[in-house]
Please model this.
Amino acid sequence: MRAATVKALNLAVEGEGNEMFEVIRKIWKTGVVTHKLPLREASQRYRGKLDIQPHKCKNCGACVAACPAGAINVAQKGQGQELSIAYTKCIFCGLCASVCKVQAVQMTNDYHLATKNKNDLIQVVRMPQ
Amino acid sequence: MSEQKDSDLEIKLQQRIKEVLGKSLHIRHVDSGSCNACDFEMNALSNPIYDIQRFGVDFVPSPRHADMLLVTGGVTRHLEEAVRKTYNAAANPKIVLAVGTCACGGGMAGQTYAGNGGVDKILPVAVYIPGCPPRPQALLEGILRALDQYEDRGESNES
Model:
């Protein structure tokens, strides 16, 4: 904005009035850029919290193998299996979602992950059977 | 999230800062071996788009002026001492936020011979903000959550 103002002043000195008004109009058109509501929803393409649908999962283990940070783990719990995602390790790269053939793992645009309790950062999903 | 709820949060943040701290919240950013992605997002908070200063939140150049420490990175062996000294230099009541996945629990690097794997191994952490890097909005939400417990922590620190 400052550079544009300097340009406008230079043009005014040189006597090119029309161009000066062009530049000033550009400054006015930019207006206020501040977000009035900063906590609004992220864009749809934003990679945030994982959404896992256990009924779709085929237990192929592709997401566990693809995770570069080792954030996804599968553990045997009683009869069924438990899939746990550690947000203390997840780098939100989206590789697990891209390798999943049945779209059981998907990225959502939810970024509200800040928490006081560290245990909240581990998301556990129970698999059927 | 609805627009009404959003504006409520914003007003709440401003009110909490006034209630708890009197005037404004001063933040010191501590880099404990991060890749600078979190630091850039933190810088973005003070740009014209997010404009965190309208809520009365400011970044200060010394821990002695600060009420809150935002720690990024997984606390490497070389910076462990610096992080401890910064925490001791901050005036009570102080509060620590772990910003980013590395600060929350090691992240990609994890716990190795050269890294501690998380700020909570060294300092008492109030709020964890995961994300690689977290959005500026997520940081704002984390600061709001931390302020909810500011009073309790202040009392416990003084005793």
In short: Chain A has four helices and five strands. Residues 31 and 55 of chain A are 49 Å apart (CA to CA). Chain A has two domains: 1-33, 50-126.
